[in-house]
Amino acid sequence: MRTRQETLEWIAELRGNEAREDVLELIESALNEDTENGILWAEAADLYLPPRSRGKPIDPDLSQCAKALRCLRRAVQSDPSMDEAWALGGLLMVDHLGMMEDALEWWSEYSVINPDSPVPLVEQVAIMARYGEFDKASTIMNSIESLDREMLSNSQKRRLEDIKSNINNAAKSDEKDVFRPQDPNHPRWEKISKYRNQKPVSQTYFLFFIVSPFVFMIGFIASAALSPYGAQGQIATFLTILIAFYSLTRVSEPLFRWMNRNATDLDRALDIEMASGKTCIPETIREGRLHKKMLSFRPPAWLERHQRIVTDGQRISRRWASGYELK
């Protein structure tokens, strides 16, 4: 059996001298003899996935994701300290496979191994918010807020601010206004059906056609008022435009969310279908442009698994809820 350092050196040598397919074959052969080598399992998972590229990343298909995830499970089982394997496994489960119930348990297991890490809580609160289970999300958020803020990365802080905003908005709303896709009689289904052929508003479109005209008017007025002051007036006009653009963008965020409410709700329905393995979206909506547009944002493996769920045709129970219990 190789030591950790010997394994890393051997893999580096293979990577430098052999083709990718040959490296995978040699590592699979090595795993037959050393089945508890976490580094080899993690390397096999990486090789099952498409190679990294400098341009647009190549998304794995369902078969590649399944093989990689199987290897990652063995990797963390053999060596629980492999943070990168935990992270990649969580990414595959949520973003590429839609297996969010599995991801909740995955991060729960990681929290036992690394109880001081905020990552499991951040990932779990994000999933609960996507479900629309804001009571559970709020409980997890309270646990996160008790942590030292220095433990969180900037991206995690921004992500949590968005989630916290959604939780606060849900708390201010009536219970019936929180969309429950598993309920076929929920009033939001009628709205989504009515606008099923209306595509979501992109951020670029919103900024260009909604925010920019107001910024232009403010800039025009500022320019006319400050032009007598020469160069200082030009600088003041420029700063006024920047402040106006930033302020109007922040103030108009609720309007942007309102305009995309149907898309957001349909996105939640897709998440629920993937998490439960059963369907909840009416066929009339599934045939609309909005549904097709939302599917265009999903990766190939996700789409392949979702198509299998739709083809199977089992309807979700209106009482469905996440089976994950908060620890």
Features:
327 residues, mainly alpha, Serine Threonine Protein Phosphatase 5, Tetratricopeptide repeat, 4 domains, 17 helices
Explain this structure.
With 327 residues, this protein is mostly helical. Helices cover 70% and strands 0% of the residues. It has 17 helices and no strands. It has helices at 4-17, 20-33, 38-48, 62-78, 83-96, 100-113, 119-131, 134-145, 154-172, 188-194, 203-226, 230-251, 253-259, 261-276, 283-286, 289-295, 300-312. α3 runs antiparallel to α4 (62-78) and α8 (134-145) crosses α9 (154-172). The model has no long low-confidence stretch (mean pLDDT 92).
What is Rg?
24 Å
Total number of distinct structural domains: 4
In the predicted model, the low-confidence regions spanning at least 5 consecutive residues are: none
Largest sheet: none
